[in-house]
Predict the structure.
Amino acid sequence: MRIVLDAMGGDAGVRVNVQGALDALREYPDMRLTLVGREEDMRGHLQAITAGGGNEPALDRLTLLHAPDVIGMHEAPVMAVRRKPHSSIVEGLMLVKNGEADAFVSAGSTGAVLAGGMFRVGRIEGVERPALAALFPMRTRKSLILDIGANTDCKPEWLAQFALMGSIYMRRTQGIENPQVALVNIGMEEEKGNETVKRAYQLLKEQPGINFIGNAEARDLPEGVADVLVCDGFVGNVILKFMEGTVHTIFKIVKDGLKSTNRGKVGGLIAKPTFKRIAAGLDASEVGGTPFLGVDGVVIKAHGNSNARAIFSAIRQARLMVENRVVSIIKDGIIQ
Amino acid sequence: MRIVLDAMGGDAGVRVNVQGALDALREYPDMRLTLVGREEDMRGHLQAITAGGGNEPALDRLTLLHAPDVIGMHEAPVMAVRRKPHSSIVEGLMLVKNGEADAFVSAGSTGAVLAGGMFRVGRIEGVERPALAALFPMRTRKSLILDIGANTDCKPEWLAQFALMGSIYMRRTQGIENPQVALVNIGMEEEKGNETVKRAYQLLKEQPGINFIGNAEARDLPEGVADVLVCDGFVGNVILKFMEGTVHTIFKIVKDGLKSTNRGKVGGLIAKPTFKRIAAGLDASEVGGTPFLGVDGVVIKAHGNSNARAIFSAIRQARLMVENRVVSIIKDGIIQ
């Protein structure tokens, strides 16, 4: 198992990537890991983190690959990927492309990871559009939402492929035998929705290899109505970010509300461990990154605000995809 | 002030409509109200509710208009409006159309209210598509989201008109002098989004009569980033329903979490009044109904699961629109 991690990705900088990499190397003795980025930065953080323990065995399985360039969060993605072949993202993806690594993980620019995935690693033959997929902890189960932003305007046929790729992902990495697939829509009836969604409904009914259960209304998503939720990248991105925002705001409202009366203060203080536990359950850093499904290799985008724990989770997720041969199963599924 | 209320609308039936109507008549001595629906049903509930008090003065301002037909929640809307001219929805809307009432309120089929609004009351000249608008209690202010479901596929020009109509609504009924308008998008930068949204951004920059502040990401909506949030009806409907679902599910998670430990139980019990207060703040029944902006009359759709309090709120909202001449101000704004 050989994983490449973009050392330069994410808001928190090199340190959390180095820490996450070390944590993963210690956890998984079968794994080799390549950190790609500015060598000096990587060495500096490595020394600081392993101060005095630089001879631990896990480090024997760590390689540093120098990539002098960095793609910034606000660079135009396609252009940046083309102009910066020696950036950490492109160098890392090329290791996957050339068979020198099994998976690439980055908390860097989403656009650049997607563009690099598309144009450096390339699509699986037959896949019209790869999709970014997020596994979300709904109340009664985890739901995979895709696409969450790779394709803002979608053809109905793409949505049908998303359903198939998402089903394979859930079956292989989450052990769900016959994942339920639903189409995110504004009503339960077959004829509801915009033009794209209406046509997608008809295709999903016919799509082999999936267990289509019909439409899912946004109201029911947080309860956990399906294993795979299909939508275009605009709607998926809105759902994903709106959920983050709503959870954040409701906790703030509850906190402020409890603080505003003495009785609330006392109750809140007593119940504090419970609130902490609930917040942890809704914490995205446990979910890992978002796989870019449909490219010909394992590519995982970790959240921009990842801490070391989130980087570790994204690596764990990459491992699951490699171990369970998700890419080659998608290949077989698409060709059928 | 003459309001028409659809007595047959909503999941809870005639009783909550009659109760909401009576509450409003008692609150507003300047108001006349017509209940439209099956006369027998209306009389029955009226007698039950006013038992012994049937001679109170508020009842002098109440009229019952018999409409033998009812449009069900699952009837095809356009067809139902055409085939059932003597339904409560169509009869009620015709009073507005003919100038015999100032506003129509219904908790019935959304599709039928929209179709009836479009084809019986009619569009304001120059309005391309009327939009359904919901006022939502975000943390720091109320935001009006439109469209929330009248138009699932939108042209960019329609979105620009939604912005204008929403701004007028917020200025006139909420007293916000220079309402901030934002475009719901998946990124803050001008070039983000799907094709419709990208073009709408350019139109909104040029649209006179609005205070456009740029894109708003879904993550930031619950905090309250703008007074008017513009999006197509598919996205707006997803946001609206997803917010309902998320609030519901988080409260369930918190409740279950508190119950699962003794410490949580004690803290939760002590903080219970605070939770009740918070839940009330997020309660849609205080918000009132959703105005159908762009039709040539005041048409308010109340939530299908309205209680008497929600019906009262929707009537209050209709009054605000009439008193502040929202329809004629939109007329002036569109013609300019």
Remarks:
- Chain B touches chain A through 61 residues (CB under 8 Å).
- Chain B has a mean pLDDT of 91.
- The radius of gyration of chain B is 21 Å.
